[in-house]
Amino acid sequence: MDFLEEEIEFTPGPVTEYLHEALDPDAVERLAQILRTAASPVIVVGTEVARYGAIAALERLSDLVDASVLGEIKGADLAFPNTNPRYVGKLTASSPALEGADVVVLLGAELTEGLAMPLPDFGDSLVVQVTVDPLALRRQYAGQVGILSHPGRLLDAVADRLAEGGAVPVSSGGRVRGLRERWEAGREALRSRLLGEADGAVSAAHIADLIHRLGGSETIVVNQCGSAEGFIDTLVDYGAPWTYFGLSGKASAQGWGAPAAVGIQMARPDRRVIAVLGDGGFMFNSTAIHTAAAYDVPVVYLVLDNGGWRDVATVTGAMGSSLGEPGAEDAMRWTFRPPIDHASYARSLGLKSWRASNPEELESAFAAAFAEDGPTLIQVASAMGDVRVFGQAFA
Ligand SMILES: Cc1ncc(C[n+]2csc(CCOP(=O)(O)OP(=O)(O)O)c2C)c(N)n1
Ligand SMILES: [Mg+2]
C-alpha cells in the first residue's frame, strides 16, 4: 500500500477564516471572546512565536486566561520558556493537557512534522489556528477558526481587549499547576532513567545538568544530537528567548548544527554557544569547525560518540523492521568502522579538544573549554542507554 496514493474520507467542518494582513478587529474580538469564556484553554506554541518576537505577549495572555502551554515536539526555536510554570510539556497524541481542554489554540505550530504522529485528537475542543503563513493555515488540521496574523500583535491586542474588560492576571493554580507537576515528575523520571542506564558513560542527563551549571543560565544551546535531542530539549532549563536552537522536525537536516553554531555565536558574542551534536550528524558537515577556528568563534562543540547513526535503526526496529535486528546497523554501514577520532580531527583543524569517557572527565573538559577564548571540541563517550530509552518511546 502506497500511503501517498491512499484515498481517505475527509470532510472539513465549518470554518470562519480571518485573512486580513492588518490586524483584524473581528479576529481580536473573536479570540478574546473564545478565551474569555474558556474554562481550560491550552495554547500550543510553535517557532513562529519566537521568530516574530511574541514570547512576552504570549506570557502575558496566558496569565490573563489561565492557559496551559504546550510546545512543538521538535521546535527549532524556544517558543516559550520551559521555566514558566504554565509550560506543561510537548504536544503529543497523549498530552495530558489535552484531556478536558475546551479550547486549543495552535499558535504558529506545526503538527505533523517531526515525530508527533499520530496526530493529536483534540476531541470536542474548539480549535483555533493562528499563523503568519497562508500555506500553513488548515494544511495540517482544519480546526474551527483560522486567523492569519502576526502572533505578537494579535496576542497583545487580545490581551488589551481582555484587560479592558476587567480581566486580571490569574495565578497558575489548579489545573495548570497539576499539569505542571505532572510534567516535572515525568522529567525527573526521565532524568533518573537515563542516569540509571548510563553504565559509567555520559548520558544526555549528565550533559543537561552541566550546561547551565558551568555556562550560566544564558548559555545558548544548539541541539542536533539524534536520539538524545529530545532529552536535551526536555532536561535543560530554558528561561530566556534565543537560548535554544533545535533541529526542526520539518527536515531533520543532518549537518545543520556545526555551521549553525558558528553563525549563532557570531551573532551573539555576549553569550556562549554550546553545540550538542551526534557523531553521525556531525560527520555531515564537520568541516564547519574549521570556520570557527579560522574566525576564532568560541563555540563549545560536544560530539556524542556512540559509534555512528543509532536513531534510524532504533526507531524503525522498535516499529518492527528488521533494521532493529543485531548486526543490521553494521550491515547498513551505519556504524563507523574504522572508529573516528573526532578530538584529533578537531585538533588538526585548529580547535582545542578533549575526550571525555565519563561524566567526571566531561565536567573538567567542559570547564576547560569555557575558559578558552577560541572554539573547542569535546568528544564524549555517549551512553548507549540513551539510545535504548529513546527507542522505548517508539515500541
Ligand atoms: C541530510 C540527512 N541525511 C540523512 C538523514 C537521516 N538521518 C536522521 S538521523 C541520522 C543519523 C544521526 O546520527 P547521530 O547524529 O550520530 O545520532 P544518533 O542516532 O547516533 O543518536 C540520519 C542519517 C537526515 N535526517 N538528513
Ligand atoms: Mg551517533
TrEMBL record:
Pfam families tied to this protein: TPP_enzyme_C, TPP_enzyme_M
Domain Thiamine pyrophosphate enzyme central: 28-157
Coiled coil spans: none
Required cofactor names: thiamine diphosphate
GO molecular function list: acetolactate synthase activity; benzoylformate decarboxylase activity; flavin adenine dinucleotide binding; magnesium ion binding; thiamine pyrophosphate binding
SUPFAM superfamilies referenced in this protein's UniProt entry, alphabetically: DHS-like NAD/FAD-binding domain, Thiamin diphosphate-binding fold (THDP-binding)
Single GO biological process annotation from the record: L-valine biosynthetic process
Keyword vocabulary terms for this entry: Lyase, Thiamine pyrophosphate, Transferase
Gene Ontology CC: acetolactate synthase complex
EC numbers: 2.2.1.6, 4.1.1.7
Ranges of residues in domain Thiamine pyrophosphate enzyme TPP-binding: 226-380
Keyword Disulfide bond in record: no
Keyword Lipid biosynthesis: no
PANTHER family: ACETOLACTATE SYNTHASE CATALYTIC SUBUNIT, MITOCHONDRIAL (PTHR18968:SF13), THIAMINE PYROPHOSPHATE ENZYMES (PTHR18968)
Family under the similarity heading: Belongs to the TPP enzyme family.
Protein name per UniProt: Benzoylformate decarboxylase/acetolactate synthase-1/2/3 large subunit
